[in-house]
């Protein structure tokens, strides 16, 4: 049989406090220790601990590089970073670069041996382990909650902050921020990089806005307290998917519904699963998200096959590793359990319970074989079936009705499953562990901690009556106030009886009975042994509790009493009683003669049967072996368990596996070689006696000195160390087990062991402790154990060692007090002097007698005391002045020393209003010096200095509080209120909190700024919200621009329905709605012709393609959807001349959606002109649309015939005819190339040649040509003489030749200037020269190249289809006259000769 181990609970509210390496070693931080577990799919095994931190461990991580898996790192609230060897369990290196509490840690998966940590002040520290170098960065002035190094880019680190911000920094560029990822509204709890490099569209559902194809970068997942998991694209710096946590029905029973808990959302991206993410949920559930799934439910619940598999409280950390062909996930939770999951089956493999407090008591059931009960300081009882074969950690947890540390347990001797428990707040109850009922609680409470429980026969008055009217066993409880109660298990609601009354009456005791500290019934129920605070042991005969004997051997309080079992081979051993106390020695008493032949008067025993010495500190618990004769195990504050052979008075073995003091012990009732021990290290150990290498306990230096001297020595008083500035921490105010407040017996000073170790038990409070806290907090219920006036919380058994003496407070009259400690002769002389003064009516300067004479003498004593007061004791001087009635003097003294208090301030009004007001002003300055600004502002309000209070809060960034105060006390129109809103809004806007900033602007009636700040984020939702806000607020122009901007963004995503919905909100945007309508119809037609291939998010039914003419379709949709018709000429004219539809300048556009938008604008103007019968404008707008398409090589964007419009032109309008000819030239230009492409099979060489203007002939996809052939089939008759005259325009050829000449001159001048000029002005001259020509080209020359048309005509006439001779001569003449450049000549000769 192997030994088992229950470790301490993993620490809560840490972003990465557990991790597992590739070899299956799990490490996690618990308190200030790191525990290591070997993990398999079958079971876990605790292999060791890493100790060295002095405060709570806040982070832990393994190095993931091959061959370095044993290297790990930990961070702590002691502000140190330590690097360990997990195999050797030794410290390798450490650094203390951080000045604030460390909150995040991670090893770089790419850069070898790089450790990255972050703290609450926002500092990121990179530590290179091999070179011992560090480098610090400060990317953002925010509190860091978590960080994660990229597994693909060695210099990228993602950092999550408390306010929801995520940044990606590059450490190779001095921590430069690469991306700021905004989207979360609350704390970032975890970050996880995708294990697959590059951003692949196949990883995510396409409906989430992911791009086509793979991009550089990597996806990043984040979990936040705002209940969302977000997936970010680091290639584009924006979110691509948001996963909202589902509300699931809470599973499990180990939850107290009255305890609130805050959400913790951790995420983990398993290796080898790029499309699956594991995250925690609200109540302890773990869900796996499938990023490829569409629909609402993209998740699967782990452990859904049966109840009880899930955690019952929130999950903090998750990590995974591969073992064989299985991938296992490890999770830690607030329910103090570590679970192992199979990610393939999503089922729980095993559960390891952990402990969140001291293990105070253990108890094996005498009825249920192998059933072990644990009483733990985390307010829970655990019942462990230690004999379970399928689950070696088969543990049930009970919390109902406990609500305090469980300090005592006792199984019923006969009734199966009946377990009595006692707590540190004095509660006694009985649990039926095999039922779901809450426990029965005794109505009689102890005033202090319950030390021990024991089942025994009833004694009077409960023993009176018939056998059927009373229980066979009563429950006895002993607690810190020194009282033993007898409880009726049949009627716990009744009042329990104090057995001291029976002991007094039976034994006729008149003196005071010493306080009891432990009790133990002999197994046969005939005799009761009681241990007392003074070290005595009383043995009483049942049922009358007649005193048989008193054992006076110990000199300190009795901590534990145990009778030997009755089934030994030697009958006389059953009368052995073992006792342990605070003097580190165990005595065994043989009480056979006292019990079998009792005397009439009690016997006093002063000699033990056996003495077992070897421990070096307080004995806390004993247990006899039920399998051996005279075999005893003891545990002690020295941190060891000792097994004794009592009969031989020899040690057998010593167990040293614990790292703290031991508090309880039990010998296994099944296996004779196994012992169970628990201690204040939050662990329970099962160990074998036969496997221990040590025989005796370790000896401390102090113990060795004591053994050498062996003489009674006077104890020296130790000065109490002054607490640090700011007072003691919350966990340091709790005394350790067995620790006295001051001067109590059994302090263990002569044993040389310091017991100044604080218990740091974790407690659940309403909100959970903050990541930034120095330690766990404690509920108020834990204070019930302390004295009525004490501020200390005493853990279990600690009140055993309290002396009745209490420490005297410091006197405020130290001088006269010291005078009372002079030699006896001088004190007696004072008596004579006092008598002489009183009876001779004289006086003197004897200040020590001021308390006993008249008032004048008392005042002189006060004055002398004030002059001799020790530095720093100003409070005593203030009290003296107050007692004299000098209130103003007391206040002035405290104000001068900066020691004003609330008590003094409350007394100030007694001296008058002016004094009180001045005192408040001084107190406010004192509070500001100590940074208590809220309290200072409240005091300013009390003296009606409202504006000063508001200014104070504002100057220290307490905007929310300042606004609350101003709203409550000032008039709504007060300018101070608006100034507060505007100042706060500026700060919020700078920090990226745009929504709250907008609220401030709205409250300050600055509606324009509110809309602008919401629009800053730039996403569609923000723009739409800003537009609505501007419209509601009456900012019509801003609403107009924001709506248009939002609609254009939606247009880029092809979300036509949403774009029209946004534009519909503004009546002034009707013109833009028409443009978007044309754009949608045009995009749909181009998509049907395979000219564009993008996907459409949403569209309207009226945009579907049909056989109808394009412009006719536009007019029909306008009439049906937008009520724009030719009949309403006023409306059409308004749209045509409005500044909404602006003629855009002609420039080169390569982005197709933008190009289509500008073409749609031209077509819209064209359609409006047609409705107005303005035919010249129709052709002009049509020409502009064709020009835009031709500029970028798209000739097929507009193929409508212009014949109909030409017939309607005024023949006397020269401008209209010129525009008509330009449109015809475009059509002819397109038809010329289509003719060439349709009939030439050898165009590949030609299309790659460069022409005289330096532009390449645009290559056309063969499929596009074939698609267009059916729609624009032309007969050879089209290529008539008029066709070529349109293309072979000599004025255009002349202009283009002039432009080429100017360009050549500009090129040469530019070359000369660049060679000979060194001044900056010379570099600007080429730009100045090139600008006018470019404008001229665009305005007059047009995009058609006449020389190009000439070359194509000559080529087609020679190789494909002969043309009339005079047409060919015209082309050749133009080439000779205007194609004189070298490039044109070369192309002409190559293609035509």
Termini separation (Å)? 101 Å
The major pleated sheet works out as: 5 strands, mixed
Q: What is the beta-strand fraction? A: 15-25%
Radius of gyration over C-alpha positions, nearest whole angstrom:
46 Å
Q: What is the overall number of helices?
A: 33
**Overall 3D shape:** elongated
Mean pLDDT across every amino acid position: 79
State the total count of DSSP E strands.
Answer: 57
Uncertain stretches? 251-256, 709-805, 1139-1150, 1192-1208, 1241-1278, 1319-1343
Give me the side-by-side strand order of the main sheet. Answer: 42-43-44-45-49
Helix content: 25-40%
Class by alpha and beta content: alpha+beta
WD repeats: 50-94, 219-242, 612-646
Keywords: Repeat, WD repeat
Domain Gem-associated protein 5 RBS: 1110-1337
Protein name: Gem nuclear organelle associated protein 5
Please give a structural write-up.
The protein is an alpha+beta fold and 1393 residues long. Helices cover 30% and strands 22% of the residues. The chain contains 33 helices and 57 strands. Strands 42-43-44-45-49 form a five-stranded mixed beta sheet, covered by helices on one side. The protein has a four-stranded antiparallel beta sheet with strand order 1-57-56-55, with no helix packed on it. A hairpin with a 3-residue loop joins strand 31 and strand 32 (380-385). Helix 10 (913-929) packs antiparallel against helix 11. It is elongated. The model is unreliable at 251-256, 709-805, 1139-1150, 1192-1208, 1241-1278 and 1319-1343 (pLDDT under 50). Residues 723-742 have a biased composition (Basic and acidic residues). Keywords: Repeat, WD repeat. InterPro entries: Beta-prop_GEMI5_1st (IPR056432), Beta-prop_GEMI5_2nd (IPR056424), GEMI5_RBS (IPR056420), Gemin-5 (IPR052640), Quinoprotein_ADH-like_sf (IPR011047), TPR_GEMI5 (IPR056421), WD40/YVTN_repeat-like_dom_sf (IPR015943), WD40_PAC1 (IPR020472). This is Gem nuclear organelle associated protein 5. Residues 372-679 form the Gem-associated protein 5 second beta-propeller domain.
